[in-house]
Amino acid sequence: MKILIVEDDQKLADFLNRALQAEGYATDIVSRVSDTLSYVRTHQPDLILLDRLLEDGDGLQVCRDIRHLKLPCKILMLSALSEVEDRVSGLRGGADDYLGKPFHFEELLARIEALSQRDHFSKAENRLSYADLSLNLDHLELTRAGQLIELTAKELRIMEMLLRNPGRVLSRERILSHVWGVLEDPMTNIVDVYMARLRRKIDADFELKLIRTRRGLGYLLSDRTAA
């Protein structure tokens, strides 16, 4: 995912740039209203983190202008103006989400992940694919090399999460929270149990193993052969 950071606080912009790149996102920074629209037209980022109060103008007007271009990008507005009326005006102005400053980076990440699963102008992508794996989101069917693999609802949610983040390590805690919710005991080994089931169903009959473990870190999908 390509993210444009529109922020005139250089310290915050640099932090977001480094932190998001560490999470695997491609990022760029602009600090002025006058540069934002030209960048968006040329590079068409997937998501824009848009400061509401910029030195040379109002981010809300920038948001309206971007929507006028009808480009399929998501807009997450960041602002110290966080009263209800401010959030409402931002959302009505075309923002997909609105986050008040200061904010926790983990919350920002969660909102980015949620926005990445939406689509403004067309039906959400109905198929996720990686290597010879394919998940049909309409029929909730997973195939590998054209072979249908029977999965439970929880197994399907895990595979959807992995397929939306190929090559990216997902911690056990993140999988647990996403699939089972925050009420599940964080000390449970249920994630490991389900990953073992998925390996038997998805990898056992194939030479190339796609579900990988990073010891102490979590799980990922990868088709790279081990060194």
Automatic annotation (TrEMBL):
One of its GO terms (molecular function) is transcription cis-regulatory region binding. GO terms for cellular component: cytosol; protein-DNA complex. GO terms for biological process: regulation of DNA-templated transcription. Residues 2-116 form the Response regulatory domain. The modification 4-aspartylphosphate is found at residue 51. InterPro entries: CheY-like_superfamily (IPR011006), OmpR/PhoB-type_DNA-bd (IPR001867), Sig_transdc_resp-reg_receiver (IPR001789), WalR-like (IPR039420), WH-like_DNA-bd_sf (IPR036388). Residues 125-223 bind DNA. It comes from the Bacteria. Residues 125-223 form the OmpR/PhoB-type domain. The keyword Signal does not apply. Pfam families: Response_reg, Trans_reg_C. This is Mycobacterial persistence regulator A. It comes from Nitrincola nitratireducens.
